[in-house]
Design brief:
Strand content: 25-35%
Number of helices: 6
GO molecular function: inositol monophosphate 1-phosphatase activity; metal ion binding
Family: Belongs to the inositol monophosphatase superfamily.
Cofactor: Mg(2+)
GO biological process, one term: inositol metabolic process
Pfam family, one: Inositol_P
Radius of gyration: 17 Å
């Protein structure tokens, strides 16, 4: 099957699976769920685990030759031998989900040879489904989207957590005069950049692949750029599945990243 057809077929599969995941998460949100805590003090809910189990069964049944990387599944070396790999965060923004907030997402990507080729970010509480396939552009609820064309850092809307504002991250210890905005889910931050609702996003700590793989494709297919904090291309399905931060945006991405120390 030609790559373009395989990417389109994988995108259709991801959309179906994401919508099913949304139904599961919403049912748990209505009826209640147990929350436990990981060793790193991050929460995990019954809904995270139920969505993960459903997605793994659903997606690998449809694509048995693909690898699997998910926040909620114990990792193993088998995926490294697969050319195509599902990279999934069953619920991105679990803390927000557990608190009853709306800004959580399902983040699903297919990565081929380290590069995302199909991606979906679904926000069930907002009714927003972002989708992209390699070379096919990005869309929100079926309508094409484009990243911001703003080039000036001053006044730009930049999605970032407060630790990213620390002076030592910036050249000369001077925080650029952008406007900080925030959403709990990294996948949602990237989706907002892809649709031009915000000009850029950045996270300067090491970031797990499942948080950003789908969103990175959304941004690049919307005409933007997504790199690590040093400007290296974002690559996925690494043996240790973390990136050195991420800076993503439309036209402002390069000038913003250039200001990092």
């Amino acid at each position: 099957m030609p790559a373009i057809e395989a990417d389109a077929a994988d995108l259709a599969l991801l959309i179906e699976a994401a919508e099913e995941a949304g139904g599961i998460a919403l049912r748990y949100a209505r009826r209640g769920f147990r929350t436990t805590w990981k060793p790193d003090d991050s929460p995990v809910t019954e809904a995270d685990m139920a969505v993960d189990a459903h997605l793994r069964a659903r997606l690998l049944a449809a694509r048995p030759g693909y690898g699997w990387l998910s926040e909620e599944t114990p990792d193993g070396p088998e995926r490294l031998a697969a050319r195509r790999v599902f990279v999934v965060d069953p619920i991105d923004g679990t803390r927000a989900y557990a608190e009853g907030a709306k800004d959580w997402a399902h983040s699903l990507a297919v990565v081929e040879d380290g590069v995302p080729v199909a991606a979906v970010v679904l926000l069930p509480m907002h009714g927003r489904l972002y989708a992209a396939a390699r070379g096919g552009g990005a869309a929100l609820n079926g309508a094409p989207i484009r990243a911001s064309r703003r080039e000036e850092v001053a006044g730009a809307a930049v999605l970032a957590a407060k630790p990213a504002l620390a002076p030592h991250h910036w050249t000369g210890g001077a925080l650029p005069p952008f406007r900080r905005t925030f959403r709990s889910s990294l996948a949602y931050r990237l989706a907002r950049v892809a649709e031009g609702a915000d000009d850029a996003m950045l996270t300067l700590r090491p970031v797990w692949e499942w948080d950003v793989a789908a969103g990175a494709l959304l941004v690049t297919e919307a005409g933007g750029a997504a790199t690590d904090r040093r400007g290296a291309p974002a690559r996925f399905n690494a043996a240790h599945p973390q990136l050195d931060g991420m800076v993503a945006g439309g036209a402002v991405q390069s000038p913003l990243r250039a200001l990092l120390a």
